[in-house]
């Protein structure tokens, strides 16, 4: 505190300023002021939300100096800005994170306490912005944190969905969805910048003519126009002056449009237009790795990408620079193919608005964009029906045809006569209907292409992007994902943070490799004990949470076996369930059997239209109901489905995990990031050689990782030789027993139909090799049972897991992107003195 105050004096800022002061007294005064002047309340009638808002505004005030200073430096300076384009940001609650990054957590805790409340109580009040589905959106949030913490100039662009990812409730074991009205109590973290807005054209047709200079003009006459308004949220770096901007676009009706209809006396028509325009940023599509080829989704993608590119060009030109140098000011990262329409939009803006020639425009475009691929699943590869595409973006279709025409000339030169190659690289697919391949548009228009874990990148080069790799191998590289240790350790596990810091100081928070320093304590019995006490404390907290939410009592001394992530067949939550039933059957056969008590905790959402995933949720709950209530089990097994998995809940679950389930079919999970957060928090992993598991195992040591299952190569080989899941069922009596029980209605009050779709797909198709991996999974789980009995050894392995996770900080990932793709450097921000800006 003293240092901060001295810093303020140095910078000539009034130490006790109500908006910037960092002392407990200044914070108290700020909160009271905000309660009175912003919320219009006095303590006797203020609600918990009023206090939450008052404290949040006090925090935001303290961020604003950093924010405006950062913006000024970026716009005026010559430095390059990273522009991250993402349809999703899964930020999680801001308050606690901002307190940590501002380094005023303890002062605020004290200030709130002196006002008669607990800070935790207010932190728990925040409704998180759930503007993403899962890993991809959360990665974007971690990357924004690391960019700011590394003082890299960056803007994140996206959509300000009015409704984020749905809220999940469980009713009779089934998932039910409710709308996520996250803005209903206001959002203290954003600033609406009404003056920053852009028009976005949609639909209509293209008029072509030759102008007086003999130049071909393409005039896009839109069917309608929407306006995008900027809503900015500051993203603070950890203990630095940098505060970057997350700029989310809200769609509205442009005024001019309303006037036309109003003038014509068509009042209801005008109102209708308003609704249609606002619809674009209304709701996040809740599908994860499954495309839904809906027109509105394409409109969303184009809407935010067009606003963002117009904004970047505007920023660039305002600094007095020429459009030809755009790529020297901005580098644009495409978070999967969702924003890849940006490549055609950039061409349109350069050609039609800034009147550049094709070759010059193409040069600028292809020096601007880089593309990250996040999945190998064929059903997640975006394509757009050509007719639908033309009805939304007629001008872009022309442009894509032209890009393709020129590109295929190069392809033909390289792969002369190879029609397979030409078909596969073409931006247009020709099936029963023609379609546009967005991964191909992203690949042709980007100077760099990366996967998100080493195995994933290798598989990309061998499978979905094989022909691209052969055509331009120099574009490819790997950038293994990472997670921010600020949110995923300092914020969510303060007790472990404290214990670690007591041994190795606190610089590991910015340099996660320093966790290595813990290795030498791994065998120290005292440290082991302290370590396991923290774990137990976190498990007790989660136990209380489970009791509060579900009314269930679980034993905090039991092994917390945790699988939390989106529900998807490839992630194989049902393999986990088969193991639970296997243990249950052992107990039923021999009620006195000695097994380690376990609490199986599941959490995750299913896409609302994904029937089999929803059925898996039902199965987990159905098995839970039987297992949890069977007296023979004597509470040795408990199955918990924790509802509404989101960032808020994840923060409470990860610290309590003993075992991290990372059991996807090898070759299917691009990286995973939950695997990193869990291991960082001292959980041991049971996993396949998939995604980043491979690298985690390399780092923590194979003796500290529970490996099982087929490798990606073996999966392919088994499939090509004709995989028959039925054989596994027939030849394994325990597996047979488990599947038969599900089928016979043992877990569904004798209803034999309910799970049939699931068991049939396991027995006769089993795309995800659940039955093939069953035996190996059960065997490794038996080893885990054994390992958990040796408390000291388990503690040692747990400590080593944390100690060796340094690589998986998103700071490391972002450094790699900066050095190897973006070529940007950090720019320390000088603070502006607000009292001296006139
Ligand atoms: C996810 C992948 O499924 C994860 O393996 C990966 O760790 C993250 O992205 C981040 O790279 N993913 C997602 O959440 N949504 C998609 N549409 C595609 C991938």
From TrEMBL:
Record PTM N6-(pyridoxal phosphate)lysine, positions in chain: 677
Cofactor requirement: pyridoxal 5'-phosphate
Group of enzyme by EC: transferase
One Pfam family named in its UniProt record: Phosphorylase
One GO BP: glycogen catabolic process
Reaction catalyzed: [(1->4)-alpha-D-glucosyl](n) + phosphate = [(1->4)-alpha-D-glucosyl](n-1) + alpha-D-glucose 1-phosphate
Recorded GO CC terms: cytoplasm
UniProt keyword terms in alphabetical order: Carbohydrate metabolism, Glycogen metabolism, Glycosyltransferase, Pyridoxal phosphate, Transferase
InterPro entries the UniProt entry points to: Glycg_phsphrylas, Glyco_trans_35, Pyridoxal_P_attach_site
NCBIfam families listed in its UniProt record: P_ylase
Family: Belongs to the glycogen phosphorylase family.
Protein name: Alpha-1,4 glucan phosphorylase
Organism: Aquiflexum balticum DSM 16537
């Amino acid at each position: 505190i003293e240092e901060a105050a001295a810093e303020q004096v140095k910078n000539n800022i009034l130490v006790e300023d109500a908006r910037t002061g960092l002392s407990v007294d200044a914070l108290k005064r700020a909160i009271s002021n905000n309660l009175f002047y912003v919320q219009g309340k006095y303590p006797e009638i203020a609600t918990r939300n009023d206090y939450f808002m008052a404290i949040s505004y006090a925090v935001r005030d303290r961020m604003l100096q950093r924010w405006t200073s950062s913006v000024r430096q970026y716009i005026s300076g010559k430095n390059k800005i990273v522009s991250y384009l993402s349809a999703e940001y899964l930020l999680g609650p801001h308050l606690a994170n901002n307190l940590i990054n501002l380094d005023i957590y303890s002062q605020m805790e004290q200030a709130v306490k002196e006002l008669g409340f607990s800070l935790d109580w207010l932190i728990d009040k925040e409704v998180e912005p759930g503007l993403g589905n899962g890993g991809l959106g959360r990665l974007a949030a971690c990357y924004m944190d690391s960019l700011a913490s590394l003082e890299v100039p960056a803007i994140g662009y996206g959509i300000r969905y009015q409704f984020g990812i749905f809220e999940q409730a469980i009713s009779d074991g089934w998932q039910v969805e409710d709308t996520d009205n996250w803005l209903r109590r206001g959002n203290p973290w954003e600033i609406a910048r009404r003056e920053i807005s852009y028009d976005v054209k949609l639909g209509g047709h293209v008029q072509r003519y030759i102008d007086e200079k003999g130049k071909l003009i393409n005039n896009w006459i839109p069917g309608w126009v929407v306006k995008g308004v900027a809503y900015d949220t500051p993203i603070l770096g950890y203990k630095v002056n940098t505060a970057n901007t997350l700029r989310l676009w809200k769609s509205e009706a442009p005024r001019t449009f309303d006037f036309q209809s109003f003038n014509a006396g068509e009042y209801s028509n005008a109102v209708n237009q308003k609704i249609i325009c606002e619809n674009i940023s209304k709701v996040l599509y809740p599908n994860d790795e499954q495309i839904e080829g809906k027109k509105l989704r394409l409109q969303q993608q184009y809407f935010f990408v067009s606003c963002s590119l117009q904004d970047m060009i505007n920023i660039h030109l305002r600094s007095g620079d020429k459009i030809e140098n755009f790529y020297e000011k901005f580098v644009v990262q495409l978070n999967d193919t969702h924003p890849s329409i940006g490549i055609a939009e950039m061409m349109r803006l350069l050609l039609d608005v800034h009147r550049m020639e094709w070759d010059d425009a193409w040069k600028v475009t292809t020096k601007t964009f880089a593309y990250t691929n996040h999945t190998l699943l064929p059903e997640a590869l975006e394509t757009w029906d050509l007719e639908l595409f033309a009805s939304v973006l007629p001008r872009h279709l022309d442009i894509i045809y032209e890009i393709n025409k020129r590109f295929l000339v190069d392809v033909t030169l390289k792969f002369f006569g190879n029609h397979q190659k030409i078909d596969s690289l073409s931006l247009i697919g020709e099936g029963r209907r023609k379609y546009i391949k967005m991964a191909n548009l992203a690949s042709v228009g980007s100077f760099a292409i990366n996967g998100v874990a080493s195995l994933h990148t290798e598989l990309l080069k061998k499978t979905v992007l094989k022909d691209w790799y052969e055509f331009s191998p120099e574009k490819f590289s790997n950038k293994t994902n990472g997670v921010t240790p600020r949110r995923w350790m300092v914020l969510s596990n303060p007790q472990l943070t404290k214990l670690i810091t007591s041994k190795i100081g606190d610089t590991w928070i910015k340099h996660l490799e320093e966790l290595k320093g813990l290795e030498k304590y791994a065998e120290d019995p005292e440290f082991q004990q302290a370590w396991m006490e923290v774990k137990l404390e976190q498990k007790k907290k989660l136990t209380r949470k489970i009791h509060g939410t579900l009314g269930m009592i679980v034993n905090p001394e039991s092994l917390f076996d945790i699988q939390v992530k989106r529900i998807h067949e490839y992630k194989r939550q049902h393999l986990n369930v088969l193991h639970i039933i296997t243990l249950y059957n052992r107990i039923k056969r021999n009620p006195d059997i000695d097994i380690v008590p376990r609490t199986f905790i599941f959490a995750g959402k299913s896409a609302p239209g994904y029937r089999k995933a929803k059925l898996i949720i039902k199965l987990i709950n159905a098995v839970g109901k039987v297992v949890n209530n069977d007296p023979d089990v004597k509470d040795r097994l408990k199955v918990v489905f924790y509802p509404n998995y989101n960032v808020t809940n994840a923060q409470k679950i990860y610290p309590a995990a003993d075992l991290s389930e990372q059991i996807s079919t090898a070759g299917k999970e691009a990286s995973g990031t939950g695997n990193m957060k869990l291991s960082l928090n001292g959980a041991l992993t049971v996993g396949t050689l998939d995604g980043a598991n491979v690298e985690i195992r390399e780092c923590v040591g194979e003796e500290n990782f529970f490996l099982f299952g087929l490798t990606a190569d073996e999966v392919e080989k088994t499939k090509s030789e004709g995989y028959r899941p039925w054989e596994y069922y027939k030849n394994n009596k325990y597996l047979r027993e488990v599947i038969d029980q599900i089928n016979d209605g043992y877990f569904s009050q004798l209803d034999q139909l309910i799970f049939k779709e699931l068991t049939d797909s396991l027995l006769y198709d089993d795309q995800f090799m659940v039955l093939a991996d069953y035996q190996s999974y059960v065997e490794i789980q038996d080893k885990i049972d054994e390992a958990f009995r040796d408390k000291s050894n388990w503690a040692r392995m747990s400590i080593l897991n944390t100690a060796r996770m340094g690589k998986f900080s998103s700071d490391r990932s972002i450094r790699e992107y900066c050095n190897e793709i973006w070529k940007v450097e950090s720019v320390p921000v000088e603070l502006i003195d607000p009292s001296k800006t006139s």
